[in-house]
């Protein structure tokens, strides 16, 4: 999809009749787990729209991919409603408990206590996913929650087979999962990681989901489930109170938008940094005619724009309900032009300036993309942060809590375990949402619409950039999800790269330019992508070859 003139694009849009059925097929879904993709399609087949399917896919992922997301976590749902073009981002991000304070994770000497914001009850923000699903169903869906949650309830009750990815994630978090009786019971067998194909049943989670199916939002945030959540958290040393749950609300936020080579991106707004950083990188790259540079210089330029956008992320971004942010400026092409002014073609810019920034988010998280036959679409990235979140299942609820509190700056101004420094904009405050990198995105080209996103902590945003660059070069979903990845996030001042992302010769040349390199042992990310070709009406999709997910068009 090379650059077309805006005039041609406008002609094409005018030519497309507004009521045209969006797609020849019933719909397309790409998610990180085949059972979630299949359940979403079953809901489309029952007459549900993309928003109903989005409830189902998220709920099934909560059951079968408990290491990535869940009802004890949160996320962002980017929606496009076909009938009127309405677009919105549902912010179902976790909030800090009302009893939290900026020094929650510091000892009496003001030092960060290792692990406190990662493991156990103190690490858990107030979940947003149950509220977001209830909101999605009530405001945008057609089917009752009793229908859309049914597949997840069944899988929680009857169980699902353990796969290799589950085993790897459980192995990583085994010591923490063993700490808590309810977690052991739910996710381990005989105190060990379950063998392949063992069946994991979660009857208490099934019961909590059943209450949500019956009572919606209040089934989770008020009544017996809420009471058990608060009692269980407090008995294990946590600080939750009933008003934390009763006051939780989903926020509808205006997405952020940008344009690159005639392609229009719509992406996540704060409290995610994703859309702003993505659009800043694209705006900066638009200053260069990338096609004219040899591959190594293109990669150098991509790294330099990542460096600058991630520096701004660290400096400025946080929860918009608590912090004033110069969002319009950060996504302004003129501002990007200023950022690129000191990019040199023959030298890396050292990351000298120490912004008061934020930490690297957890490695897990999940993403799914949906387009239905009417053209409604959903791009959703959900998280409980680290694999298996805080590793704490609240007794009597089946709810595994997130450890999203680690996405706050534990101590503004000091480096965190990943070598990044924490900032004021993202300091802990009661009721505040922690900064995220989740970047659910739509891209409209002259040919159609892409829906894409991925997990992967702070690397999420640079993965989206690689995907969109592959799209700009004319590739389809397979190319976006499989493109080799490299990443720079300002600090630490290194290029991380997957095997195969930088040729040996390129590595040498990049080092000669002054870059420091950090080869990774394996790939990262798990992108789920769809494309609706508006010229022929066809849908296509791809699930990242690094994961076990599935993209299906029916
Ligand atoms: N915890 C991952 C993120 O929010 O970016």
In terms of quaternary structure, what is this?
single chain
Strand order of the largest sheet: 6-3-2-10-9-1-20
- Structural class comes to alpha+beta
- Give the number of helices: 20
- The whole-angstrom Rg is 22 Å
The main β sheet shows up as:
7 strands, antiparallel
| Mass-distribution shape | globular
Helix content: 25-40%
User: How many domains, as an integer?
Assistant: 2
Q: Regions with pLDDT < 50 over 5+ consecutive residues?
A: 1-21, 356-362
Architecture overview:
Keywords: Acyltransferase, Glutathione biosynthesis, Hydrolase, Transferase, Zymogen. It is built from 20 helices and 20 strands. The chain is globular and about 60 Å long. A hairpin with a 6-residue loop joins strand 2 and strand 3. The longest helix is centred in the middle third of the chain and has 22 residues. The protein starts with 5 loop residues before the first helix and ends with a strand. It is 35% helix and 16% strand. It folds into two domains: 266 residues, no CATH class; 209 residues, Gamma-glutamyltranspeptidase, large (L) subunit, C-terminal domain (Serum Albumin, Chain A, Domain 1), CATH 1.10.246. With 554 residues, it is of the alpha+beta class. The strands form five sheets. A seven-stranded antiparallel beta sheet has the order 6-3-2-10-9-1-20, covered by helices on one side. It has a six-stranded antiparallel beta sheet with strand order 7-8-13-14-18-19. A three-stranded mixed beta sheet has the order 15-16-17. The N terminus is likely disordered. The site of glycine has 11 residues, from loops. The site of glycine (GLY) has 11 residues, from loops.
């Amino acid at each position: 999809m090379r650059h077309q003139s805006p005039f041609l694009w406008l002609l094409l849009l005018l030519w497309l009749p507004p009521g045209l059925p969006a797609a020849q097929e019933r719909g397309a879904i790409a998610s990180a787990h085949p059972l979630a993709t299949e359940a979403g399609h079953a809901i489309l087949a029952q007459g549900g729209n993309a928003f109903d399917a989005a409830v189902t896919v998220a709920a099934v992922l909560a059951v079968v991919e408990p290491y990535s997301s869940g009802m004890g976590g949160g996320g962002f749902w980017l929606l496009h409603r076909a009938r009127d073009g309405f677009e919105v981002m549902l912010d179902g991000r976790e909030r800090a408990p009302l009893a939290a304070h900026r020094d929650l994770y510091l000892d009496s000497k003001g030092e960060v206590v290792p692990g406190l914001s990662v493991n156990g009850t103190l690490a858990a923000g107030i979940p947003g996913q149950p509220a977001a699903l209830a909101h999605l169903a009530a405001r945008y869906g057609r089917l009752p929650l009793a229908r859309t949650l049914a597949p997840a309830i069944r899988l929680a009750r009857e169980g699902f087979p353990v796969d290799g990815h589950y085993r790897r994630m459980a192995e990583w978090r085994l010591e923490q999962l063993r700490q808590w009786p309810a977690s052991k019971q739910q996710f381990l067998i005989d105190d060990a990681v379950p063998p392949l194909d063992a069946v994991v049943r979660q009857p208490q989670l099934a019961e909590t989901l059943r209450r949500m199916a019956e009572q919606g939002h209040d089934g989770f945030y008020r009544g017996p489930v809420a009471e058990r959540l608060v009692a269980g958290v407090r008995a294990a040393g946590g600080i939750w109170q009933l008003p934390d749950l009763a006051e939780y609300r989903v926020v509808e936020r205006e997405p952020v938008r940008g344009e690159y080579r005639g392609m229009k991106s719509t992406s996540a707004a704060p409290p995610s940094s994703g859309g702003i950083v993505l659009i800043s990188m694209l705006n900066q790259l638009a200053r260069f005619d990338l096609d004219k540079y040899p591959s190594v210089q293109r990669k150098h330029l991509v790294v330099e724009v990542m460096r600058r956008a991630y520096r701004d992320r660290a400096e400025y971004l946080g929860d918009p309900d608590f912090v004033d942010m110069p969002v319009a400026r950060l996504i302004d092409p003129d501002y990007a032009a200023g950022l690129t002014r000191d990019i040199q073609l023959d030298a890396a810019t050292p990351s000298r300036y120490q912004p008061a920034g934020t930490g690297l988010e957890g490695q897990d998280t999940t993403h799914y993309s949906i387009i239905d036959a009417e053209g409604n679409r959903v791009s959703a990235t959900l998280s409980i942060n680290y694999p298996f979140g805080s590793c704490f299942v609240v007794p009597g609820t089946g709810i595994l809590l997130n450890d999203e509190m680690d996405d706050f700056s534990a101590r503004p101004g000091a480096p965190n375990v990943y070598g990044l420094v924490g900032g004021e904009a993202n300091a802990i405050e009661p009721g505040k949402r922690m900064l995220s990198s989740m970047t659910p995105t739509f891209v409209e080209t002259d040919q159609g619409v892409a829906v894409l996103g991925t997990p992967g902590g702070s690397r999420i945003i640079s993965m989206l950039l690689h995907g969109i660059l592959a799209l700009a070069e004319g590739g389809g979903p397979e190319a976006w999800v499989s493109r080799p990845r490299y990443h720079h996030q300002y600090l630490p001042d290194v290029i991380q790269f997957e095997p195969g992302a930088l040729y040996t010769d390129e590595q040498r040349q990049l080092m000669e330019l002054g870059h420091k390199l950090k080869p990774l042992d394996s790939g990262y990310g798990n992108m789920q992508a769809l494309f609706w070709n508006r010229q022929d009406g066809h849908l296509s999709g791809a699930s990242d070859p690094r994961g076990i997910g599935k993209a299906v068009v029916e």
